[in-house]
Design brief:
Layout lengths: L9 H6 L5 H12 L6 H4 L2 H7 L7 H8 L4 H17 L10 H11 L6 H9 L12
Helix pairs in contact: 2-6, 5-7, 6-7
């Protein structure tokens, strides 16, 4: 188990956090290229700390972001965030995980995740809320 840095300003930073679509593209590319095994080696520490607020943006933000994403990008981000939460310190999100909101977005689009993806999420996460969120 790794211990992340505690930042007393994290809540304020999360509220003013701006999503960078090029960063999301980079994360989706890591998934697409099957480079999710050692994310801490793939991403520099500054980026990991800087992008941690992505994990707690909430449903409204992810639905808004999702308007600019196609289904394949959403699926790749689901894979990325599933693994990122397990591997990156400070990226724990529980029921507020982007995976929950992105899966809901797929269902809203009438393109629900495949059984294989759902099983993959369960196999690659210890977050009991994935993929459906809190009951």
């Amino acid at each position: 188990m790794t211990v992340g840095d505690w930042d007393p300003n994290a809540a304020a930073q999360a509220q003013s956090f701006e999503v960078d679509e090029s960063i999301l593209d980079r994360f989706a590319d890591l998934s697409r290229q099957q480079q999710l095994d050692q994310l801490a080696d793939q991403l520099d520490r500054e980026l990991i700390v800087q992008q941690a607020p992505l994990m707690t943006l909430g449903k409204a933000h992810w639905f808004e972001i999702g308007e600019t994403l196609d289904t394949d990008q959403i699926i790749e981000l689901v894979r990325f965030f599933t693994v990122a939460e397990a591997q990156l310190p400070g990226w724990e999100a529980g029921a507020e995980s982007p995976v929950v909101w992105l899966v809901k977005l797929l269902r809203q689009r009438k393109q629900p995740p495949s059984k294989e993806l759902l099983l993959w999420i369960k196999a690659n996460s210890e977050n009991r809320f994935l993929p459906n969120g809190a009951l």
